[in-house]
Amino acid sequence: MVVYPAIFKKVDNGYMVRFPEIPEAMTEGDTINQAYEMAIEVLGLALEDYHIFPKPSAYHSIQQKYPNSIITLVGIDLKDYRSQYVSESLK
């Protein structure tokens, strides 16, 4: 399992999510729950392109840098993600 801090920012129509260490991993959702689910998905998609994963920033440092945002840890089991992704694409 890999875990990265994610920045959830409230916007007019929901929440925008990004990962500081993985700039291409950005998503959004209408609700915080939907944004979290989308964050897991986009994290898995983005990490498929990495051979060496970036080191996650400390939660504390991200929280200090973005005091007006919600910071949470998002984790994904890449083995489970890949098996689900492959099985869905074969259907």
> What is the spatial order of strands in the main beta sheet?
3-2-1-4
Q: Count structural domains.
A: 1
Report the strand count: 4
Helical run tally: 3
State the order of secondary-structure elements, H for helix, E for strand.
EEEHHEH
Task: Please indicate the percent range of residues in DSSP E strands (runs of 2 or more).
Answer: 25-35%
CA-based shape: globular
And the CATH topology? Double Stranded RNA Binding Domain
* CATH-derived architecture: 2-Layer Sandwich
Estimated helix fraction: 25-40%
Radius of gyration: 13 Å
Gap between N and C termini: 26 Å
CATH class: Alpha Beta
- The biggest beta sheet, please? 4 strands, antiparallel
- Poorly predicted spans: none
- Class from secondary-structure proportions: alpha+beta
What is the overall pLDDT average? 91
InterPro entries: HicB-like, TTHA1013/TTHA0281-like
Pfam family, one: HicB_lk_antitox
